[in-house]
Specification:
With 154 residues, the chain is of the alpha+beta class. It has 6 helices and 6 strands; from the N terminus they run βααβαβββααβα. The chain binds a DNA duplex (12 and 12 nucleotides) through loops.
DNA sequence: GCCAACGTTGGC
DNA sequence: GCCAACGTTGGC
């Protein structure tokens, strides 16, 4: 099976690279996604073994900081059922979960984080979803885009 | 099923 | 902190 590539955004104040590095086995549940397009990717497309660009949004500057690996494919996001969670969704039923999560494990930190402005000015990256449809928090990346980003990040 | 109002994301 | 883009909700 062809390996596939994704980009996942995180707010470093909430859960960034430093949190991922401190997590057990440097693995975390990628939960809290509450957007249907992103949900569909988590539920239907993203497979164990797929590779992930770990992106810090909302910061100065926003940038790709690391690569990660999907270690568990889509499963119901546990936070949707917990009333104590900010991501609790009272409308979601256990036998018909609305939201999904995957588990990802840190692979490698980029020696040189690749900023959004660099991505925007690099030929071959102009069609990245990150550039064209910036709000999607989980998005597909082509193998060509993956190679270019990793080269820039070395 | 349309679309206005509203809420959120995220770059700047 | 502002605000543009755009996703979601809900009245009709």
């Amino acid at each position: 099976m062809a390996q596939r590539y994704w980009l996942m955004k995180s707010d470093p104040d909430t859960f960034g690279l430093k949190h991922l590095k401190r997590s057990r086995d440097q693995t975390t549940c990628w939960d809290g996604v509450r957007n249907y397009s992103a949900r569909n990717l988590l539920r239907d497309q993203i497979q164990k073994g797929d590779a992930v660009l770990f992106y810090h949004s909302q910061l100065k500057p926003p940038e790709v900081v690391a690569t990660a690996m999907v270690v568990r494919a889509g499963y119901p996001d546990p936070t949707q059922f917990n009333p104590k969670e900010p991501y609790f969704d009272s409308e979601s039923a256990r036998d018909a979960p609305r939201w999904y999560a995957v588990d990802i494990q840190l692979d490698a930190e980029l020696a040189n984080p690749v900023t959004l402005s660099r991505i925007k000015e690099t030929p071959g990256l102009e069609n990245m979803v990150l550039v064209r449809r910036s709000r999607l928090s989980v998005q597909p990346v082509t193998s060509e885009e993956w190679k270019i980003i990793l080269r820039l990040g070395r």
